[in-house]
Design goal:
mainly alpha; Four Helix Bundle (Hemerythrin (Met), subunit A)
């Protein structure tokens, strides 16, 4: 039964991402990402990680997608993409693909060497919370400030300028 549920959730996740890649409507793409993120949360639940499942659904399928929808509503997407920007799309996609392949090669190389060492706080949710709010408190707070600054910058850039 678990294998069938896993295959169903995996197919939904892949179909959601594939639909996101081919759709032309940005709102439909965001809804397809909700489908993909929610099914990924279900896969985490099947793997015995209820905390990750809840975080996946609440943070990604909830909060991040709401921000995506706000950006879609704020930005005028009816304008076409400039021609000079289109020609660099393939070059950047190839460069980012090479970076991804290099990261995958490094990750698989490290996994082949053995299991990664366990974190000092353990693998429990309590251990993660302890590490996050003791040893990694300042990086955690700096990350929240960077996200807040990015939000303020995005709102400033998206603000419409009134014609004189």
């Amino acid at each position: 039964m678990e294998v069938a549920l896993f295959l169903l959730l995996a197919a939904l996740s892949v179909a959601g991402v594939a639909g996101f890649l081919v759709t032309r409507n940005q709102a439909h793409g965001a809804l397809l990402l909700v489908l993909s993120f929610t099914s990924l949360g279900g896969i985490f639940g099947l793997l015995g990680a209820p905390f990750l499942a809840a975080v996946q659904v609440i943070v990604y399928a909830g909060a991040i997608l709401v921000l995506f929808l706000f950006v879609i509503m704020m930005v005028n997407l009816r304008e076409g993409v400039p021609a000079e920007r289109k020609k660099w799309t393939l070059v950047m996609a190839a460069a980012l693909g090479l970076v991804l392949l290099a990261e995958l090669a490094l990750a698989f190389g490290r996994l082949a060497g053995g299991a990664p060492p366990a974190a000092a706080g353990g693998s429990s949710t309590a251990g993660l919370g302890t590490l996050l709010f003791t040893r990694y408190l300042y990086p955690f707070e700096i990350t929240s400030l960077l996200i807040l600054a990015a939000l303020a910058g995005g709102l400033t850039l998206a603000r419409r300028k009134d014609a004189p």
